[in-house]
Design goal:
- One of its GO terms (biological process) is proteolysis.
- Keywords: Disulfide bond, Glycoprotein, Metal-binding, Signal, Zinc.
- This is Peptidyl-dipeptidase A.
- The chain has 24 helices and 6 strands.
- The chain is an all-alpha fold.
- A two-stranded antiparallel ribbon has the order 1-2.
- Helix 18 packs antiparallel against helix 19.
- The structure holds L-captopril and zinc ion.
C-alpha cells in the first residue's frame, strides 16, 4: 500500500461523477439580441474551472474518505475466510474509480486543460492531478478496473494474512527480523531467511494477474505501461527515471564497493567461515532483503537497543512526537492516538494486521493515522520518526491554500524524505546526549558511527535504485516472462548488491514478492532512493546553514528555524513544482552530492581495512 496515500485503487482515485455543469461554448452562447448592460457575462474558462473543481473536489474528498476507511479496516483486521471487509473495500474503491475515471469527468478535464492559458496555475495543477488519477481507473475499461480492484484487495489479504512459520511455530515478521539481526549460527540463519521467503509462491498468480490489469488500466489513457504511468507523476518518462536512479547508483558505487568488501570479510569472520565468499549470501545479512546492514555494527556508547527496550514502544511514539513539537509542529490530534493501530497485535489474536509501517490521511483533513507494529528497538525508533514525518506532512499541507487534490508531497520522494531525515537526526550523538539517551561524556568512535550509518543509508541505494527499480521496470514495461521472474531478481541482486541466495532459487519461488511494495505499492520504489538523496541535501543545508553544526554531529532538538524550514517545504503540498522547491530551499538541483560528501570521511578507513582483500564488484 502506498505508505502514505491510500492503497492503489484509492490513491488512484475515484469515480462516479457529479454532474458536470454544461459548458457554455461559442456555439451555445445565447443568441438573443444583445443587451450589454443587463446580460450576465458568460463565465470565463477560469470561472468554469473553479466551479467544476469545487464540485469535483467535494465528491473526491467524500469518496476518498470512504475508500480510506474501508482500506483501513481491511489492513488492520484480516480474518481468515471472512470476506466482509474485502467486499466493503472493493465496493468503496469501485465507487471512487467510477467517479475519478468517469468518461464525463475525463472529457471535461481535457476540455478545461485545452484552455490552460486562461486558467490559474493552481487550477491547472488540480486538473492535471485529477486527469492523472483518472488514468488509474478509466471507466472506458470499467471491467478491467473492477477486476483490478478485486485482485488488489485479495492480494493484500494474502500478503498480510500469511502465517510465517519458523521451527514449526507461527512467528511474526518482527520475530524474523529480530532473529536475522541476532542469530550467529549460519545454518539457523539460513532457515530463518528461508522462512521469511515462504510467502513468495503464494503471491505469484495474483501478482502476474495484477501486472496485466495494472498495465491495461493505464494503457486506456495512453500510457504504455504502469511503470511509465507512475514515473509520470514526477513529470518524467520511464527512461528518464531509470537514467536518474542509475546515475545515483553509480555515484554511490565506490562507497558500496568498499562496504561490500568489508562486509564479506567481517561476516566470514563472525560466522567462522574459512572461505570468504565472492558474493554475500543473502542469509548472512541482518535484513530480509539485504537493504539495511546497520545491525552489523555496534558502536560502543551509542547502542540504543537496551534503553529503547526499557522505555518501551509507547515511549518511542511519544518521543518522536515531542521531537516534532520541539521544532514548532503542533501536538498530534487526539484522534491520532484513538484511531491509529500502533503496536503488534496481542498474542493469541484471532486476526492479523498489515505488518508493514504506513501513515494514512483518511479524510484529507484532520483524521490522520498510522499503522505500525512498534517494538522498543532502533529499527522501530527510526520507523516511528519516519511515519510521523508523513503525518506532519499531511497536517501541514492541510490548509486553506492547498485544495484537496494537491494535498500530496512536492513529489512522492519528499513525502518519504521528511520522516527519514528526522530519523537520521534522532540518532546523532548530540541529539541523544541532549535527551539523556546516551552519556555525553562517554567517548564514542566517530568512524564506527559513520560506518553504521553507511550500512543503513548507502547500502540501501543499490537495492532501491538498482534491484527494485530495475526489476519492476522490466516486470511492467518489458513484460518479463513468468518463468524468469526469480532468475531476474537474483541476477539484479548479484549485479547491484553483490548478494546471492544461499541455495539455488528456481522459479518455484518468487522472492521479489516477499517485499510488500511489489504487491501493494507497485512501480514506485525509486521514491525511497530519491528520498535518501533529498534527505541528505536537506540535512546538509540544515546542519551547515541553519545550525552551523557538523552534519555528522547535529542536534535539531528545539530549533524553531529548522522546523520552519521543513514546514515551508511541506506547506504547499504539490501546488509548487518539486524542482523549484529544492532549488529555492537548498540552492541545489536533485543530486547525490551531499550524500556522497557525508560519507567521504569513511572511504579512507574502509580502504585501509580492505587493503589486501579481494574486491569482487
Ligand atoms: O516502506 C517504508 C516505509 C513506508 S511508510 C516504512 N520504507 C522502505 C522499506 O521499508 O522498504 C522506509 C524506507 C524503505
Ligand atoms: Zn514512508
Amino acid at each position: 500500500m502506498k505508505k502514505y496515500l491510500l492503497p492503489i485503487a484509492t490513491a488512484t482515485l475515484l469515480a462516479a461523477c457529479a454532474p458536470t455543469a454544461k459548458t457554455p461554448t461559442a456555439t451555445s452562447l445565447p443568441t438573443a439580441t444583445p443587451q450589454p448592460t443587463t446580460q450576465p457575462a458568460a463565465p470565463t474558462w477560469s470561472e468554469q474551472a473553479e466551479a467544476f473543481l469545487r464540485e469535483y473536489s467535494a465528491e473526491y474528498q467524500r469518496l476518498y474518505t470512504e475508500s480510506a476507511e474501508a482500506e483501513w479496516r481491511s489492513n488492520t483486521r484480516i480474518v481468515a475466510g471472512d470476506t466482509t471487509n474485502a467486499g466493503a473495500t472493493a465496493r468503496a474503491n469501485e465507487r471512487m474509480a467510477a467517479f475519478s475515471g468517469s468518461a464525463q469527468n475525463i472529457r471535461r478535464l481535457r476540455e478545461l486543460l485545452d484552455h490552460k492559458q486562461d486558467l490559474t496555475e493552481i487550477q491547472v495543477k488540480q486538473l492535471q492531478t485529477a486527469l492523472y488519477n483518472a488514468a488509474n481507473s478509466p471507466q472506458t475499461v470499467a471491467d478491467v478496473v473492477k477486476r483490478r480492484i478485486k485482485a488488489e484487495t485479495q492480494q493484500t489479504e494474502k500478503l498480510y494474512g500469511f502465517d510465517y512459520k519458523y521451527q514449526g511455530k507461527s512467528v511474526t515478521t518482527n520475530d524474523l527480523d529480530e532473529l536475522l539481526r541476532k542469530e550467529n549460527n549460519p545454518a539457523k540463519r539460513q532457515q530463518i531467511w528461508e522462512a521469511s521467503k515462504a510467502i513468495g509462491p503464494t503471491l505469484k498468480e495474483g501478482l502476474l494477474n495484477l501486472r496485466d490489469l495494472r498495465n491495461q488500466t493505464v494503457q486506456a489513457l495512453g500510457y504504455p505501461d504502469y511503470f511509465t504511468y507512475q514515473a509520470s507523476d514526477y513529470g518524467m518518462t520511464r527512461e528518464e527515471m531509470m537514467t536518474l536512479v542509475r546515475r545515483i547508483n553509480e555515484e554511490l558505487r565506490p562507497l558500496y564497493r568498499e562496504l561490500h568488501t568489508y562486509a564479506r570479510y567481517e561476516l566470514a569472520k563472525k560466522y567462522n567461515q574459512k572461505q570468504v565468499p565472492d558474493y554475500l549470501p543473502a542469509s548472512w545479512l541482518p535484513n530480509r532483503w539485504g537493504q539495511d546492514w546497520s545491525a552489523m555494527v555496534d558502536v560502543k556508547g551509542l547502542n540504543l537497543d537496551p534503553v529503547l527496550a526499557k522505555k518501551g514502544a509507547e515511549w518511542q511514539v511519544k518521543q518522536a512526537e515531542r521531537f516534532y513539537q520541539s521544532l514548532g509542529f503542533q501536538a498530534l490530534p487526539a484522534s491520532f492516538y484513538e484511531k491509529s493501530s500502533l503496536y503488534p497485535l496481542p498474542k493469541g489474536a484471532t486476526y492479523k494486521k498489515n505488518n508493514h509501517a504506513s501513515a494514512w490521511h483518511i479524510d484529507l483533513n484532520q483524521d490522520v493515522r498510522s499503522l505500525m507494529s512498534v517494538e522498543g528497538n532502533t529499527e522501530w525508533y527510526e520507523t516511528t520518526h519516519h511515519e510521523l514525518g508523513h503525518i506532519y506532512y499531511y497536517l501541514t499541507y492541510t490548509n486553506p491554500g492547498v485544495p484537496p487534490l494537491l494535498r500530496q508531497g512536492a513529489n512522492r520522494a519528499y513525502h518519504e524524505a521528511m520522516g527519514s531525515l528526522m530519523g537520521l537526526a534522532a540518532t546523532q550523538k548530540p541529539f541523544l546526549a541532549g535527551l539523556n539517551l546516551v552519556d555525553a561524556k562517554t567517548q564514542t568512535d566517530q568512524t564506527q558511527t559513520l560506518l553504521k550509518e553507511a550500512l543503513n543509508y548507502a547500502v540501501f541505494i543499490p537495492f532501491a535504485s538498482g534491484v527494485m527499480s530495475e526489476w519492476e521496470s522490466s516486470f511492467y514495461a518489458d513484460k518479463l516472462p513468468a518463468d524468469q521472474l526469480n532468475a531476474k531478481w537474483w541476477a539484479l541482486a548479484k549485479q547491484y548488491q553483490g548478494i546471492v541466495p544461499p541455495t539455488t532459487r528456481g522459479e518455484q519461488y518468487l522472492d521479489p514478492a516477499t517485499k510488500t511494495h511489489i504487491n501493494d505499492d507497485p512501480a514506485q520504489y525509486y521514491d525511497y532512493a530519491l528520498s535518501y538523496v533529498i534527505l541528505f541535501q536537506l540535512h546538509d543545508h540544515i546542519a551547515k546553514k541553519i545550525l552551523k553544526q557538523d552534519p555528522h554531529a547535529t542536534n535539531y532538538y528545539g530549533n524553531k528555524e529548522v522546523g520552519a524550514f521543513l514546514a515551508d517545504i511541506m506547506r504547499p503540498g504539490s501546488s509548487k513544482d518539486w524542482r523549484t522547491v529544492l532549488k529555492e530551499k537548498t540552492g541545489e538541483d536533485l543530486s547525490a552530492r551531499a550524500m556522497v560528501e557525508y560519507f567521504q570521511p569513511l572511504m579512507a578507513y574502509l580502504k585501509q581495512q580492505n587493503k589486501g582483500r579481494k574486491y569482487t564488484m
